[in-house]
Amino acid sequence: MSFGVVKRKDLKNVCCKFKLTNTGSIPIGISKVDVSCKCISANITSDTILPNRDQLLTITVDPNSSIGYLNKVVFVNSDADNPVILLRVKGKIIE
Q1: Where are the domains positioned within the chain?
Q2: d(CA 37, CA 35)
Q3: CB–CB of 24/51 below 8 Å?
């Protein structure tokens, strides 16, 4: 997901939201959400996704952490058939 171009002085944080959907028939447990650096954080609404339901994962970027292009990764670890999901957040921070 790209948040585009943001001015560092105009925003305290940039938020990107991902909807995680369980299309299976059993609950999925989220064991851990890892971020690739300290300039981003991640928060999920619940650590369990029930069948045919969604959970919202919000990734927050601190625009004061750097200038220029940003390309960061968030790893979502679960007990699903595909146990690791990689989410990418991109954008550009300018003065």
Answers
A1: 2-94
A2: 6
A3: yes
CA separation, residue 5 to residues 37, 55, 60, 67 (Å): 20, 27, 15, 11
Look up residue 88 and give its two tokens. Answer: 């990418």
Q: What is the fold of 2-94?
A: Immunoglobulin-like (2.60.40)
- SS3 of residue 44 by DSSP: strand
> pLDDT tens digits for the chain (95 residues)?
888 888 888 778 889 999 999 999 999 999 999 998 888 999 999 999 999 999 999 999 888 888 899 899 999 999 999 899 999 999 999 98
- Laid out side by side, the sheet with 28-35 consists of 2-7, 84-94, 68-78, 28-35, 48-49
